[in-house]
Amino acid sequence: MLLHTVQRRSPGHLRVEPPLAFLLLLLFFYAPAPAAAVVTLKGARGLAGSAPSSSIGRAAEYVPPPSFGPLNSSANAWPRAQSAWRRRLLKRSEAYVKELGERLKDDSPSDGILWRNLSHFNGSEADASVPWKTLCAQGVMWNPLPDPLLQWAQQNASECAPGDIVHSGIGDYIGRSDVALAKCGEEQCSSIVNVGCKGTKYRICKKGSVAQASLSGSCLRLRPPGQKPSQTSTGPREPQQKEFWRQFCAHNAQASSFRLLFPERLCSVGKVLTGPSMSTEGGCADLVQQDAECSQIFDFQAVTASAPAPICRCVAKSAKCAAGVEKKPSGNVYIIGG
Question: What is the reported pTM?
Answer without folding.
Answer: 0.36
